[in-house]
Amino acid sequence: MFNLMASYYDSYRPDYPPKAIDTIIKKAQLTEGSRLLEIGSGSGKATALFLNKGFDLTCIDPGEELISLGKAKYASQNVRFISSRFEDYDAPTGYYDAVISAQAFHWISRPIGYTKSAAVLKHAGYLALFWNIDIFQDVEQDVELWSILSKYNAFVACIKEADYPARVKTITDSITESAGFAKPEVLSFVWDKVYDLNGYYGYLMTSQVFFQKPDALKKACFEELSGLLERHGGRIKLRYTCELYLARKI
C-alpha cells in the first residue's frame, strides 16, 4: 500500500531532526567507511541525513516505486537502494556496523526482525530504531483533531499522551527480550512542524487505511479539517517526538 501512495509519502511524510541522527552516529561510533543497512528506507526520508558522511549505505524497502524515487533523488550519492523485504534479504553475516530503521521496524515480522538484525551486525554493532510520533495532549486543538481522525480512521503515527509510556515500555521490552541486544538506550527529540490544510491532508494520505477510503469520505474529512484550521488561524502545529531506541549487539 505504501508503494501505491509513494508520491504522497515522499512529499508529505516529515523529515527527522538532525540531532537524532547525529546522536546515532556518535553513540554507535560510526566513522568514514562504516557499513549501514537501512530497513524500510522508503524513498529516503531518513537516508538523506546519513549521506555525505563517508558511510557505505545500503537501503532496502519492498516498495518498488519508493525505491525508484530514492534511486532518482540520490543517484550521485554513495548509497544502494534495493527492493526487498528484510525477511527475504540475503544480508551477509557480521557485516554491518549499524542497522537503522526509521518509521518502519514495526512492519517487520517478529522475532526475525531482531534475530536477523543481530546476525548481520558486527560484534558490538548497533541497532537504531526511530519514529516520529505525534503525541496528542489535552489541549483544544489536539482534542478537536483527535475527534476528526477517530471519525475517519485517519491516524498517522500518533498516540495520546497518557498511552505513550506503555508504548515505550513495549518496544524497550521487545528489544531486550530478543536476547540479541542489550537493553536499549531510549532518547527523545521534540520538534514542531506547522502544516497548512493541503499539507496536513497530504500527510493523512500516507495512512494506508485512510488512503483506501472512498473519495466521498476523504472529501468530508478534508472539509472538517478545513473548519478546524479556520478556527486555529489557518495552520495546525504538530509536536512530534522523534523517539530513538539504540541497542548494542551482545
Describe this structure as you would to a colleague.
The chain is of the alpha/beta class and 250 residues long. It has one domain: Vaccinia Virus protein VP39 (Rossmann fold). Helix content is 37%, strand content 26%. Strands 1, 2, 3, 4, 5, 6, 7 and 8 form an eight-stranded mixed β-sheet that branches. α5 links the parallel β5 and β6 (158-160). α1 (6-12) packs across α7 (197-204). The protein starts with 5 loop residues before the first helix and ends with a strand.
Q: What can be said about this structure in brief?
A:
By secondary structure, this protein is α/β, with parallel strands linked by helices. Helices cover 37% and strands 26% of the residues.
Architecture per CATH nomenclature, i.e. the level-2 architecture: 3-Layer(aba) Sandwich
Overall mean pLDDT: 96
Please write the string of helix (H) and strand (E) elements.
Answer: HHEEHEEHEHEHEHHHE
Largest sheet: 8 strands, mixed
Class from helix and strand fractions? alpha/beta
Q: Would you identify the regions where 5 or more consecutive residues have pLDDT less than 50?
A: none
Q: Tell me, briefly, the overall form.
A: globular
Number of strands: 8
**Gyration radius, to the nearest Å?**
19 Å
How many independent structural domains? Answer: 1
Total helical segments: 9
What fraction strand? 25-35%
The CATH homologous superfamily is named: Vaccinia Virus protein VP39
CATH topology: Rossmann fold
Cα(first) to Cα(last) distance is 35 Å
Highest-level CATH class: Alpha Beta
Helix fraction by DSSP (H/I, runs of at least 4)? 25-40%
